[in-house]
């Protein structure tokens, strides 16, 4: 009888062993193949997310936290504000490449004087409504600057030698026939006024600008009435506006500092450096795409670690179970092995028969497990993990306490550009991993069959057949 015929008969006759091994190999292959496929997909997601991380960090006031404190009656006087001292600390950081400070103040000019609204129940002299916004323009980097500006004439305020330099829009300059170098008197009165105090500042036009068409519609709508200047001018304006008023508010400082790092992976180091030296930073938040990447990365690492531990446990359990099954099976087949030896069959063919029997079961079971994994388990696992990732992202986002008004512009430079989820899996890579898993399982059955079989084959046919074990 040929060896292949004996293999077929053994697989068919030893039904109980065949069924147990088949179920074991199918379960093991499904878990291992699916686990490896999910791990590869998660690695791909993490790499794609990492590639989307940009070096921009937004250090800004947490307005929701400040509003919550205000409603709770808590004082924020001891909290860190975004002031000139913090800006200087940021500018001196070895991790930054460039930065830009955001702030604005309400002003009027002799060409567009403040409007007075009579509100007798609240203020005898009414409410002063300024007609222009004065903002900082620190950087020409589109990712850092609030708006994308094209200088039509003159210089940016930071590049000018003029005292209190102001840059006006081309529309404003044309309407009021203004040129670079002209004086511009700023009326700094705003808010409720018992009587209108003289709060003025003389400025000079350093440049004329126009906004590019790719700016947000909110900025384009306000282009004509928007001026730009330096931090020093903004500071002076705010000091004049709040003179004789006992006001201590973070709003009177800067609203935001956008930072471009040399390396986005230094985000945590930069934040730790800024927070070093103590201080209560609960009213300041650090927004960045790196923060979102880190949230996703931590979740993916946890999932991958769980899969790695499960895979190791499954390999060990599979090796132990297969070894026990083969050990018990070969004990019952000692008489068969002794007869084959007595009939002149070589030890190698007997050893090969024992191995090929289990390998045949493995090949068939592995193919079934591969199909179940790819067409049933993987799609379900992918959908579940995608939902978990979206839930994690949602949990990391805080719903704003303050409703955003029509002039609010969302800062997309500190948000990841695409949805974080497992897309199409790499079939070629999955095939390679499946092949690697098959080879490991093949190695397990090779050891679990050859070692106990060799122990039996060391004996003579007579001693094997006469054994009563």
UniProtKB/TrEMBL annotation:
Chief site of localization: membrane
Keyword Membrane among UniProt keywords: yes
Ranges for domain ABC3 transporter permease C-terminal: 312-461
Residue spans crossing the bilayer: 20-38, 306-330, 350-372, 433-457
Membrane topology: Multi-pass membrane protein
Pfam families found in the cross-reference section: FtsX
Keyword Nucleus: no
Domain of life assignment: Bacteria
Compartments, record wording: Cell membrane
Keywords, ordered alphabetically: Cell membrane, Membrane, Transmembrane, Transmembrane helix
Name listed for the protein in its UniProt record: ABC3 transporter permease C-terminal domain-containing protein
Species this chain originates from: Candidatus Enterococcus lemimoniae
């Amino acid at each position: 009888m040929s060896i292949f015929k004996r293999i077929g008969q053994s697989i068919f006759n030893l039904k109980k062993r065949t069924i147990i091994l088949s179920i074991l190999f199918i379960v093991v292959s499904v878990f291992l193949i699916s686990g490896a496929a999910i791990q590869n997909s998660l690695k791909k997601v993490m790499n794609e997310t990492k590639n989307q991380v940009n070096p921009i960090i937004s250090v800004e006031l947490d307005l929701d936290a400040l509003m919550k404190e205000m409603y709770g009656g808590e004082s924020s006087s001891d909290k860190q504000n975004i002031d000139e001292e913090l800006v200087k600390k940021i500018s001196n950081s070895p991790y930054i490449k460039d930065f830009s400070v955001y702030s604005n103040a309400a002003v009027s000019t002799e060409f567009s004087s403040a409007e007075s609204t009579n509100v007798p129940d609240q203020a005898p002299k009414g409410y002063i409504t300024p007609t222009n916004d004065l903002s900082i323009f620190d950087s020409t980097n589109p990712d850092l600057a609030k708006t994308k500006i094209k200088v039509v004439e003159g210089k940016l305020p930071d590049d000018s030698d003029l005292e209190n330099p102001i840059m006006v829009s081309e529309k404003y300059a044309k309407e009021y026939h203004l040129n670079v170098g002209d004086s511009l008197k700023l009326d700094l009165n705003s808010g409720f006024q018992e009587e209108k105090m003289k709060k003025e500042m003389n400025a000079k036009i350093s440049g004329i600008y126009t906004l590019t068409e790719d700016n947000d519609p909110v900025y384009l709508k306000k282009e004509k009435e928007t001026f730009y200047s330096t931090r020093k001018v903004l500071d002076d304006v705010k000091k004049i506006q709040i003179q004789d008023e006992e006001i201590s508010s973070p709003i009177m400082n800067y609203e935001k500092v956008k930072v471009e790092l040399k390396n986005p992976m230094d985000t945590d180091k930069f934040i730790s450096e800024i927070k070093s030296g103590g201080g209560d930073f609960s009213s300041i938040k650090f927004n960045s795409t790196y923060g979102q990447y880190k949230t996703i990365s931590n979740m993916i690492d946890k999932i991958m670690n769980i899969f790695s531990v499960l895979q190791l446990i499954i390999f060990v359990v599979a090796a132990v179970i297969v070894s026990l099954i083969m050990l018990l099976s070969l004990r019952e087949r000692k008489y068969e092995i002794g007869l084959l030896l007595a009939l002149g069959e070589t030890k190698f063919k007997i050893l090969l028969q024992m191995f090929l029997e289990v390998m045949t079961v493995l090949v068939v079971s592995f193919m079934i497990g591969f199909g179940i994994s790819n067409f049933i388990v993987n799609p379900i696992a992918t959908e579940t993990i995608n939902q978990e990732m979206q839930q994690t992202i949602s949990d990391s986002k805080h719903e704003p306490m303050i409703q955003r008004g029509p002039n609010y512009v969302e800062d997309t430079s500190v948000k990841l550009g695409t949805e974080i989820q497992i897309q199409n899996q790499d079939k070629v890579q999955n095939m390679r991993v499946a092949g690697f898993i098959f080879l490991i399982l093949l190695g397990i059955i090779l050891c679990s069959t050859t070692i106990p079989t060799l122990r039996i084959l060391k004996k003579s046919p007579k001693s094997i057949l006469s054994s009563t074990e």
